Every structure is written in structure tokens, then in C-alpha cells.
Amino acid sequence: MMRGAYNTRQKRELLSFLKERSMQHFSVDEVVFELQDRGERIGRSTVYRYLELLAEQGVVRKYQGVQGITQYQHVEDASGCDDHFHMMCSRCGNLLHVDCGLMRVMSEHLMKEHGFRLDPRDTILVGVCEKCRAEGGEAVEHGADCHEGCHHCV
């Protein structure tokens, strides 16, 4: 029997939860909290192991969030992320898909001129999304007031 091939109620509940929120992403702790809030008795290690297995199988996308916390997102077709790039909001953590001709041109340029193949699945541009900018209170982004003494600009 393939590792993780058995199906438990907990696993079905976890997969159902992720499918219901396929455009959202969650950390292991957020999944545990949400499932326990629904009345599901499930432990953190069970959730972690199953999410890792689903990531290996291509059922969920796994990526590093802006706070350094691993995030998981259900995907119907993992190969769908092979041909577009991603943007992540540094304030709310949302991951947005970018299907943009300019990004393809940039990727082709990097390959042609620099011999560097950019992997769209793992390329995430970090910035602030439109919603967070509209909410105001946006911190000054690095670069706007950059000065000689800045430790980021060495």
C-alpha cells in the first residue's frame, strides 16, 4: 500500500476544508484551529503529515509565506501554476496569480541574455496588494526613502 493511501475521516475533512477554500492559503496551525473549531478532533502532526503528502501529490501548493511560515493552498491542477508567476502581499499574505505577457518577456530575456531559466512555480514577487494599499496605513516601502547609510543597500 502506498504511503498515506489509506483514507480516514480526518483526512477527508481536511481535504474538504481545503477544497472549500481553494483560493485561500493556510498554515498548519490555522488548519488545525479551523478544523477543531468545526468540532473535528485532529492533531497538529496529523495535519502536517497529510499536508506534506498532499503537496508531494500535487493536490496542494506549498510555499513560504511572508512571515516565514509555510503555507498550503488547494489546487485543482498543480500544472496550472507552471505557466504563470505569483505575487504575494507582504501585509495580508495573499498569493495572487500573475498571467502577464510582460512577465513572460522578462523570463525569456533572462534565459536568452543571461542563460538563467526562471521557474514560474517558485517565483514569487513580494509587494503590497491593492486591497491593503486601499486600507491605508501602509508602511513606507524600502527603496522609497533609501539612503546611503541604509543597511539593506550595501
Short description:
With 154 residues, this protein is α+β, with helices and mostly antiparallel strands. It contains 5 helices and 5 strands, in the order αααββββαβα.
Tell me about this structure.
The protein is α+β, with helices and mostly antiparallel strands and 154 residues long. The protein folds into 2 domains: 1-76, Winged helix-like DNA-binding domain superfamily/Winged helix DNA-binding domain (Arc Repressor Mutant, subunit A); 77-136, Ferric-uptake regulator, C-terminal dimerisarion domain (Dna Ligase, domain 1), CATH 3.30.1490. Helix content is 36%, strand content 15%. It is built from 5 helices and 5 strands; from the N terminus they run H-H-H-E-E-E-E-H-E-H. The protein has helices at residues 9-20, 28-37, 44-57, 101-114, 130-134; strands spanning 60-64, 70-74, 85-89, 95-98, 124-127. Strands 4-3-5 form a 3-stranded mixed β-sheet, with no helix packed on it. A two-stranded antiparallel ribbon has the order 1-2. Helix 2 (28-37) packs across helix 3 (44-57). The longest helix has 14 residues, at 44-57. It is globular, with a radius of gyration of 19 Å. It starts with 8 loop residues before the first helix and ends in a 20-residue tail after the last helix. The model is unreliable at 1-5 and 140-154 (pLDDT under 50).
